[in-house]
Amino acid sequence: MKRPELIIFDWDGTLFDSVGQIVASLRFAADQFNQPLTDEAAQSIIGLGLPEVMQALFPQVPHLHQEILVHYGEHYVENSKHDAWFEGVAELLHDLKAQGIKLAVATGKSRRGLDRVLNKTQSHELFDITRAASETMSKPHPRMLEEILQVTQVEAQHAIMVGDSSYDLEMAKNIDMPRVGVSYGVHEVDVLQRYEPLTIVDSIAELHHYLTQLLQEKIHA
Question: Does Hydrolase appear among the keywords (predicted)?
């Protein structure tokens, strides 16, 4: 592939070490209404928009979705104060930016939730555009990627989607965008491999190395 012009990142589980707290907050909210929920089930839907999460986890009680979301949001905000970027993310993003690469975020978070963590990490200025599921269609529909491409004026084949879930990679595959999986987040390697990523990396350091090589045109996928 040609040297990429744009790299799009998922947030939770890809850049931000928040999967454990998301799971804990979902289980707390479910408990408030006596709804059974395992860690595995809660983790499996990370990456979807919140309405889609509710439908996937609690289809039997649609009348409780809004109240469950309120409890989830309050618990997450109260208990996620120590969540942060994975080690090496700041260096990765600043390095890519210094090389003239456009950066973007495509996340299942709400706009309010994304803005909160962008403020926390002081990273608004690093990204050319960010898209949250609450303002477009949820993954794996490619709408948010299409909107990012339109704003950045980059063609899909000249961009890369980086994510830790099947939703991220399927979204990119739906518009023939090259994609990279990360194995340290939500979904296992065998799940990510189904969506034919360029590679699957096991750490931020490995991701940094791979993207650096790709930008130097030492990898030909």
Answer: yes
